[in-house]
Structures are given as C-alpha cells and as structure tokens.
Amino acid sequence: MTKIRLVVTLVLFLSSLAAFPRPIQAAPLDFDVANGHFYTQANGEAPGASAKGYSITNDGGIPLWDEFQRLGGVDALGYPSSRRFILDGFVVQATQKVIMQWRPDAAQVYFLNVLDAMHDAGKDAWLGAVRATPGVLPSSFDAGKDWEGIKAARWALLDDNEAIKAAYWSSGDPLNLNGLPLSPVQDRGNVYVLRAQRKVFQQWKVDVPWASAGQVTVANGGDLYKEAGLLSQSAAAPEDAPGSGGTPEAAPAPSAPPPGGAKYPGVGYGFQIDPGNDPGRAMDIAKTAGFSWIKVQIRWEQLEPQKGNIQWGTMDNVVNQAAARGVRVLFSVVTAPAWSRSGQDLKDQGPPNNPQDFANFVGAIASRLKGKVHAYEIWNEQNRAEEWGGPGKQSAAGYVNLLKVAYASIKAADPNAVVLGGAPTPAGTVDLGYGALAVDDVDYFRQMYAAGAKPYFDAMAVHPSGFNNKPDDYENSGARADFKGHRSFYYRNFENYRQVMEENGDGDKQLWFTEFGWAVAQSTAPPKDRYAYASQNTEQQQAEWLVRTFQIAREKGYIGPMFVWNLNYASAADAADSEALRAFGVLRPDWSARPAFNALAAMPK
Description:
Strand order of the largest sheet: 12-13-14-15-16-19-20-21
Largest sheet: 8 strands, parallel, barrel
Number of domains: 2
CATH architecture of the largest domain: Alpha-Beta Barrel
Radius of gyration: 30 Å
Shape: elongated
Helix content: 25-40%
Number of strands: 21
CATH topology of the largest domain: TIM Barrel
C-alpha cells in the first residue's frame, strides 16, 4: 500500500511539473553567422540585455575571422568591439585588446600600435588623466641601435618592476600582443604603470575595487582607443544581429521598376580607382564601404604601343585581384595610340583613323578577360575637343561608327558583357571662334541617336557632376562663370538624358553614372579657372551630397551602377592639384578617409 501511494504521488508530481511552462532558453551571447561569427559581449550592455553586437567575418575577401582565430581568438584578443573601418588606408577592426589591421601586401593581420597611435592623435594628456599613463620616450632613445638593440633596450625597462615584467612576458606572444615598452615603469601615486605599444600595465600598491595590492592589471589597447573617442560613430555603433529583425534605415522604394532588359538591375555602388596605385588595397577599402564595383580607365595608347603588341600586365592584375574579392569591373577604354592616328594633330587626344583598330583592341580584351570584365564604356567625354581630335572636330556620327564596331567585337567575344555608350562631358556648347571646345552634352546625345546609335549600347553612361550645387538643385539662377544657370552644372542633368532615351523608345535601358562627385580643396586648391568651386565646397557638404545622390538615384528606378570619382588618385596629384585629383578624392594622399568616405560606408545600400 505504501509503494502504491509513493508511485501515485510521484506520478502526480511529475504531472504537475508538466503543467508549468518550460524556462525560456536564453539567447546565446555569440553565434556563427555566414562567413564568420557574431559577438554581443562588447556591445556596452549587460550580458544578454541587447542582441546587438559586432560580426567578424571573411567578407570581401578579407579573412578577419580566419585571422582572429589564428591569432588566438577571444582568449588572446578579447571580443570584437567595433565594425570594420578604414584607418590610415587599411581595413581594420577593433577587439577589446588589439586593433587588427589587414595588410594585403603580407596577406595577414598585423596589430596596430595603439598607444603610438594615441600619442600621434594627441591623447597623451587624456591617458595621463584617465589611466595614469606616462608619456612616451623620445625617439632619440632608439638612436644608433639596430632592431635587436632596440628590443633589448626597451625590454630592459621592464627590470624596474618584477611583477609587471612577469605579466608582460606571460603573454603567449608578448612582442606581438603587447608591443615594445614605450616608457619606463613610473610611480603614479597608488600604482606603478608601464606603457607599451599595445597595452598599459598597472601594478597596484593598495587595494582597489578591481584589484588587490600587488596585483597587475592590464588596460587593453582596443578598449583604450575606443574609450578615448578615436573610433568614428559608424565604426563604434553595434550592429543588429543577423536575422534579428532589426530596423536599419530602409532605402527608398523605387518609383518605377528597373528597366526590364538590365543585366544589373537597381543602383550599384562603385568607385573609380587608380590601377597603378595598389589596386588590391583600393578594392579592399571599397569592399569595406559596401561598394562592389570598380571602374578602371584603360588607356589604349599605353597598352597597345605598337599594333598587335598588347601589354596585359595591368589589366590582368586588376581583374584577377577583383575576381579574388568578388568585385565587378568596368573598363572605360579611351585614347588612341599614335600609330592609329597617322596624319592627325596629336596635340589633343582623338579617335583612330580606322575604328576597326579600336574594335580589335577591345575585342581582344573581351576574349582574354571574358567573365572578369563585366562592362565596357566606349570612350570618354567625346564631345570635348581634347578627347576627339581638337576644337571643332567633335562628331557624334564619327563616334557612333566607333561604337558600332566596338559593340560587335565585344559581344562576339563575351555576349554577357554590358557595353555602355561613352559619357559626354556635362557642358553647354563652348565655341570661342576657332572651333567648339565642347558640344552641348544633351544635344550631342540626341545626335548619337540621329546617327543610329540605338542598337549599339546596352546602357548609357553619364557624368552628372554637381560643381558647387546641391544634388537637389536644378538650374537655379546665376552666372555661368559661377557654375550656375545652365543645366550641365547640376547633378540632376541626368534627367535630360532619360528624356532623350524615352523620346527614342529606349526607356528600357539604364543610365550608369560612370563619373560623378564634388571637389573640395585639400591643402592646395586646384586652378581657379577650371575648379574654382573646389574652394567653395566643404568636406561635410561633399559627404552629405554624395550620400544624397544615391538616395535620388534609388528613387528613380532606372539608374544602374554608380561610380564615385575618385577613391585613390589623391597621392598621384601634382603639387598644384591641377587635375583636382586630391579635391575629388574621398581618401587623402596617405589613404586615410575623408568624411565623404565614412558617410558613403555608413549609408544604407
């Protein structure tokens, strides 16, 4: 009888347990995501209080997740504490203990010398006040020493405090994780402190809430950099967890569906890059900003110096590096070589005597690089005298003859490649009495249709520059000398191209913005006659206006890939910046980001 009662009691107890809801499973603090891992632990909230955090991934061909694991993961580096961002021209990401710097030249991560960088940023006073951290030794400390001598002299600074010395050497890879000492051990009242390149070591003389007397604690480099306010807001802001249903700012819905025949529907995000200036690094930076297209100008005169002798090195290098990173490529092919222009005045660039010579060149590219070059722009600003043989030589009919044979040659070799009609320069007709320096760009586009261009381009390239005008402005009053009063001075001039296309039954084709931007003088202002507006614009305007251009384009529904001019040409500029390469660039000559780059990276895509 007792056994029966016991069994019945047990059954009732178990039944009552089943009536209670099961405890809710706590969300994991970190978890795998596509191509990497997501961590919430350094989001600034109590554990589990927020689903936001930071992902560390191999996206864009930059294997930060693989490198994070190779270098010791959380145990060695701490939790990720920022998004990817650009610092000194390199793709970087902060963790609590270090800042990881991707070095494409070495194909691996190096650690940033954070405490050196903070010194360079003027943060020594802040470090002294907040972390009781000493300043750095003068550079003369290393004078006359080779690398082994420098290491020995700096490590000898540890001998003044055995506890700090032991903590420094206890790291699995002390030189890599800690860097070299930057200061002697200093007595800072209730604590002894040593400043190293990547950490600050503190031995406490008295009991404090976070350590007992005699204990050594470490202030981590990544945390210090972030705490000092050196991370941009966009880099420091935690991300929504993938699949969490977060509500980032949505891109405006298109007012019309994308053109039905478009191979790349919707707005695409691109930069024009200098192929002679570390193109792999430029692509890595573009990918970090969420830009997946690059434009490269292919100068025929340089790459086929003798007929049939094509120099493939630059083109092969660019497309192979792009393919490895999943970046799409537009080649803008321009400038005929002298051998193809016999009898012409070579003072100005111009077309070949025989358009088939050009067709053979682009056809050879399309054959060799099939599938690696996604689009070709045929010539550039051919309504300008400087691009088509000199004043008064411009001819829409002559250009269409070139476009026609180039189109056929490219499509024969690579049917999937997109062929763009070359973008005219935005201009009214300029004729000073000895031949037109420029033909009105919209008139020229109409002349292209009249000459039979319609079947020979898949999309039309356009250069919607803004000069010193906001992207929403359109033909406001003012003198042309002030870059006002004519539609060609305004970003929205592209709407006139759209009208011409619709007039000719080409409304199913896209416009591609293959060059656009706003110039802002960097150090030396460009020449006042051509680029006077560069001294009238500010870096903040450049940032805001570039972001707005993409918003407008998305609203239109007929815009394809857009290429900001430019990413990495600044270091190629001459002292006077005569071509405004620095002024238009979104990176500085040292590859550091201007506000425009940060704004483009942060905008919704």
